[in-house]
């Protein structure tokens, strides 16, 4: 009988070396303790479970009462369910054909630190970690009210990844909450290893070049978005929280904007918009003017430009395409390489390769300068780097083929495409299109905090008022 129990458990786990199937005395009966080594707290198992059960006596129905643990001992229906409990990190006790489980999981987690992707000068410096319970607690520390609702689901047939849907009851739209929940419950996939899996599976407009979900690593930003009516999704093993619905203007906003004076914030947001327009349009405009509309250049600059490009063997459009492509390759290589090697690669690519190509006459210095300005502008909005990087090539091709006419037409099509997007009942380009003028005080502009009496009209919510004045 003993060998049969061990054999059955080990076959269920493919004879994994870290499976522990240990015989034990449970209320004066022969039993078994089964768990995965390294996933439980052995001290709690010895002191809170095995010792009192080995010393106790009584009926098996009294087994849960004999355990001295903060986690309750629960009966498990059958062997298959018991296997699933062990796989998720619980301890299973078996006596004959009866099973009980108790959660004594030992979770290794890193300390709460400032996230590397969202460093700030002023404001909270806490960032999410990889452990979902810790991340939920960071939200509850900021929303100390029972209106904060956290619903937990399991996604992934193999990974069994915990996913939490968080929202403020009475503020988030019930329709949005129900739709997010429905889509998460409908996911049929083997495994989820990061929150981006969930985002891609439940977002609207899956073919869009823009991500249709927000991605944040700071609990204060996620809290602020939830208080505006959004729904947050946390995934175990990922430090990135997802928010739904998502608007285009969020990419031009920064969490630190709300800790500065409004005038400074407005200035910085205008800088970001100008930088993005420069990143998108400058390479294309440079090619269009050089190839089709050179009369728009000032005479002195045109002479300098002709002297710099006289020996370049490529047409302006092809030259700029090569320059942008080299930048993308260098950028990808520097990200993939180890940290210190990546820094050296950036220096080699930016200085040595660029300078050598210009000196050899393969590239012109104005083209390299335009590429550098475009790259700098692109990185002012990290959220949209991927989509804007693609559109930069599209505008470049249109300008190389049709000049400024092609650039204007392609930009108009891009704008029309952007305003046509909708996700979870919110227009992606709101509050600019459609024009929710009441939301303009916190779109590209930034009003005073006391003036933001209502929640954004761009986000569906049943509770529009968020500030009450004494005279009301």
Annotate the secondary structure layout.
Elements: H1 2-12, E1 19-26, E2 29-36, H2 42-55, H3 63-66, E3 74-76, H4 79-87, E4 91-95, E5 98-102, H5 132-140, E6 148-155, E7 161-168, H6 174-185, H7 195-202, E8 214-216, H8 219-227, E9 231-235, E10 241-244, H9 262-291, H10 299-309, H11 316-336, H12 339-359, H13 365-378, H14 385-402, H15 404-420, E11 422-423, E12 426-427
Antiparallel strand pairs: 1-2, 2-4, 3-5, 4-5, 6-7, 7-9, 8-10, 9-10, 11-12
Helix pairs in contact: 9-13, 9-14, 11-12, 11-13, 11-14, 14-15
Describe the structure.
- Helices cover 44% and strands 13% of the residues.
- It is of the alpha+beta class.
- It has three domains: 2-102, no CATH class; 132-246, no CATH class; 259-420, no CATH class.
- The protein has a five-stranded antiparallel beta sheet, with helices on both faces. The protein has a five-stranded antiparallel beta sheet with strand order 6-7-9-10-8, sandwiched between helices. A two-stranded antiparallel ribbon has the order 11-12.
- α9 (262-291) runs parallel beside α14, α11 packs antiparallel against α12 (339-359) and α14 (385-402) runs antiparallel to α15 (404-420).
- The mean pLDDT is 84.
> In terms of per-residue confidence, which ranges show pLDDT below 50 for 5 or more consecutive residues?
none
| Average pLDDT number | 84
**Element order, helices and strands?**
HEEHHEHEEHEEHHEHEEHHHHHHHEE
Shape: elongated
Class based on secondary structure composition and strand pairing: alpha+beta
Strand composition percent: 5-15%
Q: Fraction of residues in helices?
A: 40-55%
- Biggest sheet statistics: 5 strands, antiparallel
């Amino acid at each position: 009988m003993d060998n049969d129990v061990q054999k059955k458990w080990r076959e269920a786990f493919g004879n994994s070396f870290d499976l522990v199937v240990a015989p034990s005395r449970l209320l004066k009966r022969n039993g078994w303790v089964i768990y995965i080594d390294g996933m439980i707290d052995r001290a709690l198992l010895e002191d809170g479970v095995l010792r009192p059960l080995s010393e106790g006596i009584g009926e098996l129905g009294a087994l849960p009462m004999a355990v001295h643990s903060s986690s309750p001992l629960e009966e498990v229906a059958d062997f298959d369910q018991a296997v699933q409990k062990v796989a998720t990190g619980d301890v299973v006790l078996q006596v004959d054909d009866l099973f009980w489980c108790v959660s004594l999981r030992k979770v290794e987690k890193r300390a709460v630190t400032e996230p590397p992707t969202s460093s700030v000068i002023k404001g909270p410096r806490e960032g999410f970690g990889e452990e979902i319970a810790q991340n939920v607690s960071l939200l509850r520390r900021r929303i100390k009210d029972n209106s904060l609702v956290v619903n937990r689901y399991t996604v992934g047939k193999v990974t069994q990844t915990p996913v939490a849907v968080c929202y403020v009851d009475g503020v988030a739209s019930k329709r949005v909450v129900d739709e997010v929940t429905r889509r998460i419950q409908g996911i049929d996939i083997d495994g989820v290893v990061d929150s981006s899996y969930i985002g891609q599976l439940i977002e609207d407009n899956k073919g869009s070049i823009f991500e249709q979900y927000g991605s944040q690593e700071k609990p204060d930003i996620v809290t602020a978005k939830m208080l505006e009516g959004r729904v947050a999704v946390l995934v175990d093993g990922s430090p990135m929280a997802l928010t739904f619905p998502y608007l285009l203007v969020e990419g031009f906003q920064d969490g630190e904007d709300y800790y500065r004076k409004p005038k400074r914030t407005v200035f910085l947001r205008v800088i970001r918009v100008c930088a993005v327009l420069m990143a998108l349009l400058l390479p294309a405009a440079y090619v269009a003017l050089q190839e089709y509309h050179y009369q728009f250049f000032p005479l002195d600059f045109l002479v300098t430009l002709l002297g710099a490009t006289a020996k370049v063997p490529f047409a302006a459009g092809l030259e700029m395409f090569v320059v942008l492509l080299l930048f993308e390759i260098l950028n990808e290589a520097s990200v993939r390489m180890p940290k210190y090697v990546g820094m050296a690669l950036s220096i080699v690519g930016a200085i040595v390769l660029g300078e050598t190509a210009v000196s050899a006459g393969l590239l012109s210095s104005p083209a390299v300068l335009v590429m550098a300005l475009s790259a700098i502008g692109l990185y002012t909005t990290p959220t949209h780097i991927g989509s804007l990087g693609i559109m930069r090539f599209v505008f470049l091709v249109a300008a190389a083929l049709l000049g400024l006419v092609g650039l204007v037409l392609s930009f108009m099509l891009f704008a029309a495409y952007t305003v046509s997007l909708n996700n979870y009942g919110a227009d992606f380009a709101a509050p600019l299109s459609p024009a929710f003028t009441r939301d303009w005080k916190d779109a590209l502009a930034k009003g005073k905090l006391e003036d933001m009496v209502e929640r954004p009209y761009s986000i569906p919510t049943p509770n529009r008022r968020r500030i009450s004045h004494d005279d009301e």
